[in-house]
Write a structure and sequence with these properties.
heterodimer, A: alpha/beta, 17 helices, globular, B: 330 residues, Rossmann fold, 2 domains, four-stranded parallel sheet, 14 helices, binds iron/sulfur cluster
Chain lengths: 362, 330
Amino acid sequence: MRLTFPHMGNLWISVKTMLDSLGAPVVCAPLTTRRTLSLGVRYAPEGACLPLKLNVGNFLEAAELGADTVIMAGGCGPCRFGYYAQVEQAVLDDLGVSLRFLVLEPPEGSARELVGRIRAITDARSWWQVLGAVRRGFVVARCLDVLERRAQSLRPREVRPGAADQALAAAEKIMAGAWSSGAAPAFRRARALLEAVAIEPERPVLRVGVVGEIFTLLEPFVNLDLMQRLGRLGVEVSRSIYLGEWINEHLFLGLYPGIHSARGVRKASLPYLGHFVGGHGQETVGSAVLFGEKKLDGVIQLLPFTCMPEIVAQHVLPSVSRDLGIPVLTLVLDEQTGDAGLTTRLEAFVDMLWGNRGGICA
Amino acid sequence: MKPVVGIPRALLYWQYFPLWQSFLEGIGVETYLSPPTGRQILQDGLAALGTDVCLPVKVAAGHLLALRDRVDLILLPRLVSAARREYACPKLMGLPDLVRHSLSLPPLLSPVIDRYRHDNWPLIRVALAVGRRVGAGLPAVLRSLARAVECYRRYLNLLQAGYFPQEAWEAAGAGQAPDPRAPAGDVVALIGHPYTVYDREINLNLLGRLERAGLSVRTAEQVPEATARRAAAALPKHLFWTAGQQAVGAAFHYLEQEGVVGMISVMSFGCGPDSMTGDLIARRARRGGIIPHLSLTLDEHAAEAGVLTRLEAFLDMVAAQRERGVVVCG
Ligand code: SF4
Ligand code: SF4
């Protein structure tokens, strides 16, 4: 058995940590590129959302490298994600690419099903060892979140342009090797790299909240390095969702205790969006409300073309924007989203935010 | 005085209208139904919502705007779940919020319908919420609900007997019992959401065109729910959209049915569930490989000529298939 899994930003680092600690043979798909996208666009259903198309691309590229089993998360609706694995498997079957799917999701029938699927990955290892591996993967995800948050505050203040991103890339590389050396020492080394980035603490920066659909938020290939671009434009980014929270929700079925819960965020959305609508629709609206209350300079919403929960959120956000006086920019991303168009819109938005600051930086 | 309640002729209307109408009439409420989709409604809807919203929701926006100056209240339920452990499409779950924040409308009457936990989640809750809002007393509400449910049951029976919605709710309203209509001639299955299959204005009158081509049309709603569910059990995993379950189940059922000579999946551009269920159906039809299958995606820009050409090609294939069939049997 040679396991692979879909990419979503640097999710691969923690999944690989987990599988490596189990001694399971892993075939990491190459990081998402134009080729991945064109494979996905070619073979996945035309109207499918972008993450599904990229998953298909990832699986085909992993199969080329010898993967024979996919491990991924699932769900039970109402969003398309809950049926991704089944549609993807049908696509691959019809292409004659035989990959077995192990979907980690709340079982329909008995819990035994799920246990069986986990067992297929973990072989004869004891549950104790399995838990240890899962914990490790998760700790790595949490570390990555901390590093990324740190980079978000460094970027707009760095003395040498690009220094923060270089440090972050090196730090992530260290974390990718963490399963052998242990997460804690790796994290100390990784963080030291970021702490060494020279900054100008007094430089005025804009503060922008980035909200929206998780995949577009986490995958730089899809958002065309949005976080880095914003940093370069002098923006300190806050995000509505981080990797660790997503893993807890989708891979651990929300079982891991003590994680920042989205409950407060959802509550903040209720005056605008009276019901849960799947995906992260409520979190998007709720985070925008909280960012508005915290007087951030603006909010950017990201979504893949035709993303259902985010379309609902998108149509609600103008009211949030008006009530709380916070500008909102919505960016719909699809396979045709081009560099030039995105840059123009981002720059115009950021200019406007600087304009709103008025006296402060003039 | 009781308020005038507006009903948009869009989305859930195509499924639940007899139920709503009969109930509201029973409690003595005056209703106003938006006119059939036309150019103006379509234009208003397209102008009101973002480009990546699915066509049916844009059409619904047009209907809501058409009600704006004529009614005191608009009935727009929030359908969360129509069956246990299943959901509606996220956009329907959020519809009242989506339109309330992007269009200027009279107050919405949006009771929640949520059977996610129990199949027999009481409909009376919706009835009571509506009754309270329009000032109807409890006895009237109870009586009308019972009558509405009865009327709706007749309506469903008529559908399954081969009627189409419009004729079925007229007959159901008149208390008519179904007199089964066997399909006259070869059947083409037309699979899609009721609001795309029956709204002639947005589907280039597909139904009429097929009938004019001498074919009998059968739709997803005409398959009893239990039959559709049984057929949908062939899926690798329980499909959590009730509407998708009915569409896929009905399609799988028709694929096995004698006398069905072709199938068209009608999808809407930008529809999330359609992108998945349409694909599942198309693959199954292709693997089976017995009857021609056509996937049509409706969108506001679709060149009419393009769609019609594809329809013609499909009809030719159906005709060729029928001829071959005759030869084999002969
Ligand atoms: S959240 Fe959006 S992108 Fe993700 S599965 Fe749902 S519709 Fe697709
Ligand atoms: S099911 Fe499709 S067409 Fe209907 S509201 Fe949802 S996305 Fe739109």
